[in-house]
Amino acid sequence: MTETILQFGAGNFLRAFADLFVAQANRTPTAAVGKIVVVQSTDRHRADALNAAQGRYHVAVQGFAAGQVVNEVEAVDSISRALYAGTQWAEVRQFAQSTDLRWIFSNTTEAGFALDDRDSVRPTDAVAPHSFPAKLLDVLLTRHATGLPAPTVVPCELLEQNGQKLRTLVLTQAARWQVSPAATAWLSEAVGWLDNLVDRIVPGTPAEHPLKASDPLLLSAEPFAFWGVQTTAVTSGFLAHPAVTLTPDLTPFYLRKIRILNGAHTALVALALPRGFKTVHECLEHAEVGPWLERVLFDEIVPVIAERAPEAEAFARATLDRFRNPFLQHALTSIALNHEVKVKTRLLPTLADYRARFGKPAPLLSAALGV
Q1: Which strand (E) or helix (H) includes residue 321?
Q2: Which of 74, 241, 258, 286 has the greatest number of beta carbons closer than 10 A?
Q3: pLDDT score recorded for residue 64
Q4: Phi and psi torsions of 286, nearest 5°
């Protein structure tokens, strides 16, 4: 199978998300999208491990869904090879010139969406630039010089309008390098920059599993997965998978995630952390806190966003299943970081919407927040 995808990053999330989905799609000839070439920038350890395993590993899908415990294993074989940017940038550039390259995935975390003053000049030899946007620009300029069709960039970093934000960074870097007007226009107009929203909890290596001794790349992931992709002229032929939703507008899906999933997390911190609860799962199993959260979701949050968020009630029920995951111990103290900011973005808008809709305060959330 040909290599069609260049991927910046080989972290746990992409390997249990996009790489798993590609492997699943490739099992059906009519849905196959090709193989992935991974570029690892931070260190070569994971690249070496992937190559030693011939790009193959397993994902233990573990959690709670549709009223029952899920504990399954998926084999992943979508990665053909991994390259270390520090010593193999010439090979990265070579793949940029492949006639088969169509897609560029990334997950460099939010910190990767930044420029570096050390990238004031484009390297003239096969040396990788420092920042992710500069590396991507170098790849795209190498591609442009061949005259081949422009690829589509799909950044999976958790930022709203991530495609457009990455496009802006790359064009800013192009101005630093004094890229030609023709190449700048190609970067701006021919290259596809897909805004998208990813959602899946990937805890990492499971604490215990029968495959742990034989597969050093073993990962665990919850059953739930959502990949919302904003449709453009270049989304034709994008990965066909049950987790993928193509939509002309991602805004309702961001609203749904922030108000329901993130809002429920922050509501639990407000109510349960002062009472000594330690984890989300503990809260859901409690005779009082679990039903309280369910009422918050279905009586106070879902009613005020249902008209603006697709399948809000179904997403809320899936959220409760995710919180009941017996394989995941999500600490409330972790969610509590920057709690005041999270309350302002995740819960206060719901309180305002509730008052506007029903003419009174939302009783459960107001009591929990003391407002």
Answers
A1: helix 312-323
A2: 258
A3: 93
A4: -75, 140
First to last CA, the chain: 59
E strand residue ranges, the chain:
3-8, 35-40, 57-65, 68-76, 79-84, 103-106, 152-155, 192-193, 196-199, 219-221, 226-230, 244-247
Long-range contacts at 86-95 (CB < 8 A, ≥ 24 apart): 86/41, 86/44, 86/128, 87/44, 89/126, 89/127, 89/128, 90/126, 92/6, 92/39, 92/128, 92/139, 93/126, 93/138, 93/139, 93/142, 95/3, 95/6, 95/37
Residue 129 has a pLDDT of 97
What tens digit of pLDDT does each residue of 10-31 get? 999 999 999 999 999 999 999 9
Instruction: Write the CB contacts of 33 (distance below 8 Å, at least 6 apart in sequence).
Output: 4, 5, 22, 25, 26, 103, 237, 239
- For helices 339-346 and 263-272, angle between their N-to-C axes, nearest 10 degrees: 130
CA 168 from centre of chain: 20
Domains in the chain (CATH in brackets) are 3-247 (3.40.50.720), 252-369 (1.10.1040.10)
Side chain identity, residue 141: L
> Which tokens in the block code for residue 249?
């507008």
Question: Helices 132-146 and 162-176 sit at what angle, rounded to 10 degrees?
Answer: 80
- pLDDT tens digit string along 241-256? 999 999 999 999 999 9
Note the residue count of the chain. Answer: 371
Give the model's pLDDT for residue 109: 81
Q: Which two tokens stand for residue 35?
A: 């193989």
Q: How far apart are CA 273 and CA 279, in angstroms?
A: 9
**What is d(CA 85, CA 134) in angstroms, rounded to the nearest whole number?**
12
Q: Which residue type is seen at 358?
A: F
pTM exceeding the 0.85 threshold for the entire prediction? yes
